[in-house]
């Protein structure tokens, strides 16, 4: 996939694209809080992830059916998207598995370093020219996240770090594979294909794991509130993914990925507003560093393309 040069995008279109990516980050940030409500109502992790994905796939399928739209070459694209569905599963499992061995702050910091990797790969592939200064501002934004997360290095278990790195690589693979498919068939069909495969993998795991002793049977929420929370997590996550790839088609995959560092900022703000958590002075400083770094990233001119 060859994307348009991000810096060649008209200012108005660029602003709209970034706005769409920010809306995507805001919606995705709602999902963890919805999941917490579902857990409180008796659901376990397997149930939340599986039904969240099932709801997302069903919603996208109904939307396309209502519009009577199936993209040309859709069947072939669906088959080729099996890898992106696997990447989505490993994206979730890598981060979730890591927190069993290392502090959640370290796992989150490693995972949310993926924009640096996406920008580097895009630069090396010639899809988005990045200056050294731009990489510095991406690194600065990630350093700001370390303050936001309240980074703790009490446990440096190799397996936990490996799982976090695996999640970071998986989400990078997801971004590039679905971005390429989106350019071919559109963001909504591309996300439907990815989510459907992901759902099939998760359903297979949910059915097979108890038989093999790998996990206990899934526990469903015991109230309407729990199911509404899972519904909300499915809708926000899926819509957020679609909007990300819509925005990426406007500003480029690399720039869109850089702005995803706002996801944890939104998640923390929602936790403050909805759950009553509080932020320390160092965390507020981290928020300011992330925002300032993103602004400087956008105002730093990328190098001219090579002849």
Automatic annotation (TrEMBL):
Pfam families: EamA. InterPro entries: AA-Vitamin_Transporters (IPR050638), EamA_dom (IPR000620), EmrE-like (IPR037185). It is found in: Membrane. It comes from the Bacteria. Keywords: Membrane, Transmembrane, Transmembrane helix. SUPFAM superfamilies: Multidrug resistance efflux transporter EmrE. It is a multi-pass membrane protein. Coiled coil: none annotated. Residues 16-149, 159-295 form the EamA domain. The chain crosses the membrane at residues 12-31, 43-66, 86-112, 132-151, 157-180, 192-212, 224-244. Belongs to the EamA transporter family. This is EamA family transporter.
